[in-house]
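Deviations from the work plan: none for this task. Representative record:
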Amino acid sequence: MSMLVWITFLPLLGAIGIAFLPATNTRLLRQAALGVTSLVAVLGLFLWSSFDGSIAEPQHGFVRDWFTVALGAGDVPIRFALGVDGISILLVVLTTILMPIVVLSSHGHIEHRVKEFFVWLLVMQAGMLGVFLSLDLVLFYFFWEVSLVPLYFIVGIWGGERRLYATIKFFLYTVAGSLVMLVGMIALIYGLQSSDLMDLIGRTGELPVATQTWIFFSFALAFAIKVPVLPFHTWLADAHTEAPTSGSVLLAGVLLKMGTYGLLRFGIQLFPGMAVSYSSVFLVLGALGIVYGAFLAMAQTDLKRLVACSSVSHLGFVVLGLFALTEPGIRGAVLQMVNHGLSTGLLFLLVGMLYERTHTRMLDRFGGIATVMPLYAIFFVFTVLSSAGLPGLNGFVGEYMILAGTFEASPLWAAVGVTGVIFGAVYLLMATRRVLFGALVHDANKKLADINAREIGIMLPLCVLCIWIGVQPNTFLDKTAGSLDALAKRVEQERIDQERGQAIGRIEFDAPSATTEGEESR
Amino acid sequence: MSQQTVAAAFEIFDDAASVATAPLLTIGVGVLLYLVCDIVPRLRAARGLAFCGTILVALFFELRILGADVVPGLVLDKTFHADHTTALFGCVFLLGTLLAWAYSVGYYHASKPFKPEHDALMLGAPAGMMLMVGANDLIVFFIGLELLSLPLYCLAAFKRSRIESVEAGVKYFLLGSFASAMLLYGSALVYTASGTLSIPGLLDADLSSSTAVAGLALIAASLFFKVSVFPFHMWVPDVYQGSPTPVTALMATGTKAAAFGFLVAQVMPLLPPSGAPIVAVLGLVTMALGNLGALVQSDLKRMLAYSGVAHAGTLLLVVAGGMAGADAAGALNATLYYMVAYVFTATGAFGLLALMEADGARFTKLDSLRGLAKSRPGVAGAMALFMLSLGGIPATGGFLGKWFAFSVLVDAGMIGTAIIGALLSVVALGYYLRVIVVMYMQPASDVEPAPTTQRPMTAGIATIVCGVFVLATGLLPSLFLAPLAG
Amino acid sequence: MLSQYGPILILIALVLGFAAGNLVISELLGKKTSAIGKADAYECGMGSIGNARLRLSIHFYLVAVLFILFDVESLLLIPWAVSAKFFEAQGVGGIVFTEIVGFVAVLGIGLAYVWNKGGLSWDR
């Protein structure tokens, strides 16, 4: 059995186990959930250490036959294929590490129906890990939709006042996209008689260009809704605002990355030709998302909604970097996915801690918090600076690489993106001033307790990672190097081919399939 | 009559025929046995055993066909067809009937004296379904249809104390017999034009004359009526809502499965490719009407009725795909898979409603489910699972059913239809999710407390079986696809 | 070819002519009187009382349905009885007899069921 199978299904086993524990003993439930997620995190670290960043192909492969679909021209085996490569390794490890922190952070605000919460949380972890690890289209779609349901419950049961509206909106938006993707996926499987991702990569060029185009856009639509890219961003503000803190952390930290991961894996890696042809569309949407998200954030009076809108802006950077289609752009974008998970996760944790104490998120109900909660203020300022991209912290590295990469491809949209950095600093620092500094005007805020050891313990590992990425990004970039270099070269080749006016994707790439990988690891 | 023809008449019922008709005969004997058990006082306690035993023996015979390498094929002078597909359909019918029966235990309070008649009628229904799916002759199909419909007419009106139930019975009977009459008239016209009623015979016959076309149109109309396709879907909400809920479960799943099974397994080669666009549009309109109708319902039972219309629309899309040139085996598998998943999901959903409705019809109101997750976590959990399956979320059979259905459309090159269909099923998720929202995310209201009656064990077992099958069809599709591939 | 139907045609004409002729003759020759009794449904006996559209007991319908059911089903015995000798001559008499016994047994179970449920007793 591959380690990946354990990583994916251990949370599921944990969820089943927790379902049998007594519902009243919340202490035991919390410990059990923490135990399971910690175990998965340890496995994640093992995976990290045994992962060779210089190899382009998926590692730790695991393949089993699942079922066979009889199609017109022959039988297509749908396989249970897992594997990890440079595109997914960071996100997998991020997911495993973030989970114990989410479990710990639920302490303050998940007081009723604790058992259900942890069951859903663990099911969701299995779903998210499955999305990043699956190397089969059907399996990917399977996990993709499975990971929707838990968040639907988490927002709907433990969320804020408008939780029902937010959760249904979130679900329907995402499902609308993914069902269109389903049709595209079926067409792809039909067209090429395979659902093996590694086999399909490099073969998509065999399809007629018109077919490729609509399939590409059906995929892109689903991922663009998930990210969310500009016109589809409205569900995010609602879902983020209404979700409980731990849900928001997960949403920002991992779930949105499913969208950007999908754009990279199924947009760029699977359809390099289409990505080259239509990159400008995404550059425009990404750049506009950066600026529009920043303006939205500036206009918010609700601290949590502000952070949610900042997500739109930050993910605009990721989209911009991905579709710059240059090596630094793509690598920066992958790193920025992690950065956003860390920084925005921290921000949501901080907002949650404040909310638990004051029961409000309105900016005008704060002010001068730094005088009563000095430790909190330290973490808050640190996180804001990390999010705004202060050199030496994680945000800077990602944003710099993305902007450098974009500049190669399109100086104009790089310039628009740079303004986003400035606006980002503006709204984040404005929020900091209104929350932490100034006079302590509200009496209710005068007796606030500072953050305790548990809360510091939750945030500290994330802060360490922020500094680590800021100071020594190569630790992380090296792991992605092999896959992303190969991908960038392929896209470059595609671009050259297109410029020469040759037919799209005639060149066969020598990508060994995941089957052989699986044989080796066993 | 010469010696030879008499001998030939007896040779019709050969070994293959006996294998093919064994399940049908079992049910016939079983119904008699059940009635005997009912009239002999000492055997009355064994009625439940007679019911389950009959179903299980018939199931055994179906499984024997399913497991055999050599299938009977066309038997009884080429009027009845038995192969792996019809056997799998048969198993689903039998299990569906057993489940509906399990939910009916303890459902009827006022009309309890007639429960044995209810069971006898219900036991007869799967014979009609199996005859329909295997029919290779329009007359055999008609007999199957009547064998299924007549029990259902009676069963629909079985909750005699409720005016809605009587209304449902009368409505279903009047409209249903109208549909049967159309089928007969259509068959007569087809016979006039072609001189044959057997499906293989019709394949060779020239059906281009206006008489034949009119006949085929009438047959199609009667089939559309039975499976509730636009524009013949109007009766569905009233009848489904008025009928006793376990009967609704059987009606919604069995009739649909049998009629679509016949359409796809036996008459698909007869359908002209030129009709595909019309059928696709009918399917989409049916989906839209079903989903939009369901969206505005405040009664869960009526909502599920509309959802049944929408599912019929999806299946009609598969038929359209098959007509437009998709792989015939693929279309058949898709229909079968969709139907298997739907039978278990919808039976479970209606069955849980029956559980709650036993305390009073008002408990099918959506609002009465508030806070159900707290008061009856098991029921709420199972209902949530069925809703997700109806909505087609992965890990449930509904997803793979939908996946196969869209595959057929893509295979036929009907991409636009597939995308519109996919978007319409997003609308469907809107109301399926609402049920989950009410159960899990809204506190119990004081006005309409959720029902708390303890129900018989059979219903619990039935729910578990439905849940297991919903998950099994979602996770281990090879279990159900493997017998078909052989 | 049609000529062989000639006698039948003549017969039909005669029958119709006789019936029509009687009506015409009585209309022409008969003495016409009108009285209340003549407009009544019955010309003799007591004058009618009440409405003819009575509500009948549901038992009548039940008996009628049961009669039709068993009557029509027993009809199947006639073709068997007619050709029983023929089947015997063909060597399949035993099988056909067994089948018909089975059929009668099914009817018997039906009758027993109806009897047991009180379908045959008038005042239940």
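Chain B touches chain A at residues 326-327, 329-330, 333, 388, 393-395, 399, 402-404, 406-407, 409-411, 415, 418-419, 422-423, 425-426, 429-430, 433-434, 436-437, 440-442, 476-478, 481, 485 (CB under 8 Å).
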